[in-house]
Amino acid sequence: MIDIQGRVALVSGGSRGIGAAICRTLAAAGASVAVNYEHNAAAAAAVCRDIVGSGGRARAFGADVGQPDQVERLVHDVTEAYGAVEILVHNAGLQHSAMAHRMTDVQWNEALSVNLSAGFYLARAVLPPMRAAAWGCVVFVSSASGSVAQAGAAGYVAAKHGLVGLTKALAVESAPKGIRVNAVAPGLTDTEMVRGLSHDQRSGLLERIPLGRIATPEEVADTVAWVVRGATYSTGNVFHVSGGVAMG
Question: Which of 19, 62, 154, 200 could form a disulfide with 91 if both were Cys (CB 3.0 to 4.6 A apart)?
């Protein structure tokens, strides 16, 4: 396992759910964590308090990672606070529920902006210092929807498929400089969005999961941490955490 003590990790969408669990897990392994949030400063501050209270290092940084100018400012601010970003986890995402023929331009563009374009903007900003240092690790949090389509989420599914493609393209470009780029693809996970589903909706989704249960954010975070620390000879790959919904 790679020692990431003191390494600088930036986690987009780190204020709640899977992102918050990733922040806590990387901090527990010794990383200095930049907890990105867009709107919920209080939630991000709470994650930082938890980490600092446990002896770790964390600071909150507000930015809409779907906006390239804000990404540039975010990476600048993190670098000023901690040093160059050495570990990037792009976790921020959103999903609009609408059939394609009813999906608005705004819904479509938001899905691609936050889920896909933000990953490109973040990688573009952090890769130059990683290349100069000949070390770095990028993890994109994709989704089982990046392999298995679902109705009513065309923008989300397209963006997550695109994120897998971006993972592979950046992996090829970055490998000669010692930088690994991989994706982790969660399935149904116990987050605020899932808790808002009706009993019938949850039951229907559970029927599709071979392991028969919903993942915890910590299970996804553990996989992300393993990809960062343990998958030392892996790049351009997608690691599924979907209970068997997506395989291979």
Answer: 19
